[in-house]
Prior knowledge:
five-stranded mixed sheet, Nucleotidyltransferase, domain 5, 2 domains, 11 helices
Amino acid sequence: xxxxxxxxxxxxxxxxxxxxxxxxxxxxxxxxxxxxxxxxxxxxxxxxxxxxxxxxxxxxxxxxxxxxxxxxxxxxxxxxxxxxxxxxxxxxxxxxxxxxxxxxxxxxxxxxxxxxxxxxxxxxxxxxxxxxxxxxxxxxxxxxxxxxxxxxxxxxxxxxxxxxxxxxxxxxxxxxxxxxxxxxxxxxxxxxxxxxxxxxxxxxxxxxxxxxxxxxxxxxxxxxxxxxxxxxxxxxxxxxxxxxxxxxxxxxxxxxxxxxxxxxxxxxxxxxxxxxxxxxxxxxxxxxxxxxxxxxxxxxxxxxxxxxxxxxxxxxxxxxxxxxxxxxxxxxxxxxxxxxxxxxxxxxxxxxxxxxxxxx
Length: 360
């Protein structure tokens, strides 16, 4: 590995423990350990998440290094997610990264989790990695040219990010309350769907009528978003239907109303996507850009991906959508962001503390 840049990356912002290795910008491994324990609680329990990270981080890092064919003595630097996220979870990843960096006497590179999601568009899988990853075989991965507008949508964030360079990004719009992913998950919980609710809504919406239940759309000036009113509208629509039919539970209501869950999911999904894309379209046109991208966990939603493609065709814009494996929290995106920060000499002091909330 002499003369090569070898980056180990660690991601532990929420409930997935992940480690990845890139060599000279090529992804060699990307290992993710998910936590199933949260499903029975209907959401992530921070204390349980941090404990699971402590159990997972050593075997995950060891597996990532072995799959990449790399020894820890060959590492050039360690990149890690410093924030935002759950503080207990971040502490596990941060502490491990610091300890290993001190032991190997190599630099630390901090990565903003949100910047990492944007950088998922620049992950370049090696032939070795693709051969071990069936979902990437035959997939043409396109990397956007600068500048471009990125719609970043996840469980905790909904933002419009103008991307000028690998290390230069500016938020031009963001949610003033709830995120789109949070709206998906909380509305799914109201319907009695399992956690995480986003994939269930995506699945049921394909069988529903998106025009069946009109839901409130926010009217926020500029490029900012708001989804709290939409959640309230969703809840009140169900409440009023339950009152009219004299039932006390969603299951009782569903037994009386054909396609209730499918139509509610379709209506919710369409409203969220319309809201997201209306601001994306406005910001992109106002800033005279011709390239748009989507990133974050919600970018795995099939309807959103198709709507992005349709918008690009209508506006004659280039559209960039990351492979499914790089949409959720993963260390490959942290490694890619860390790689460019390493090349720029942007290192992190050993006493840097993780943070729960921040902007790009």
